[in-house]
């Protein structure tokens, strides 16, 4: 075997090993690439009790119940399914019913999501793409979700030419 053939063989073998390593890493991270799961996605995947994941959706109006020692119960929905959430701690200032939320934790044996972290959406116009897509799919999308607060058709600059 000539020197050039050995070099090409080594480069080809190195690329093959690198490709296999990349495929294994991406396969192992496949489930954790998603930033959060909606209640429907959690039900479809049959998430086992005790497995940690992020749950995202909208806090159901009328579901917020505050208990003793900072205990809070509420429900997260995505339009088709609702999942009860239990959290003990201080909620973010922007947390309220009807707003988007992402909770980190795990399901217990009875199907209740026990959260150890709750993140509220930070801006009234922000909505994660997955939540927006889920709302559109379920028919709960409102055209004013993406609108800036205070923006109206009358205040928008006119399009076209003027003489």
What are the SSEs and their pairings?
Layout lengths: L2 H26 L10 H7 L6 E8 L5 E2 L4 E7 L4 E7 L11 E8 L5 E8 L8 H10 L25
Parallel strand pairs: 4-6
Antiparallel strand pairs: 1-3, 1-5, 2-3, 3-4, 5-6
Keywords: Cell membrane, Cytochrome c-type biogenesis, Heme, Iron, Membrane, Metal-binding, Signal-anchor, Transmembrane, Transmembrane helix
Family: Belongs to the CcmE/CycJ family.
Function: Heme chaperone required for the biogenesis of c-type cytochromes. Transiently binds heme delivered by CcmC and transfers the heme to apo-cytochromes in a process facilitated by CcmF and CcmH.
CATH topology of the largest domain: OB fold (Dihydrolipoamide Acetyltransferase, E2P)
Radius of gyration: 24 Å
Number of strands: 6
Q: What's the arrangement of strands in the largest beta sheet?
A: 1-3-4-6-5
Which architecture of the largest domain would the CATH scheme give at its second level?
Beta Barrel
Q: Could you state the CATH homologous superfamily of the largest domain?
A: Nucleic acid-binding proteins
Low-confidence sequence ranges:
148-163
Helix fraction? 25-40%
Beta-strand content estimate: 15-25%
User: Roughly what is the average pLDDT, rounded to an integer?
Assistant: 81
Order of helices and strands: HHEEEEEEH
Shape: elongated
Q: What is the domain tally?
A: 2
Number of helices: 3
Keywords: Cell membrane, Cytochrome c-type biogenesis, Heme, Iron, Membrane, Metal-binding, Signal-anchor, Transmembrane, Transmembrane helix
Subcellular location: Cell membrane; Membrane
Binding site for heme: 122, 126
Biased composition (Low complexity): 147-163
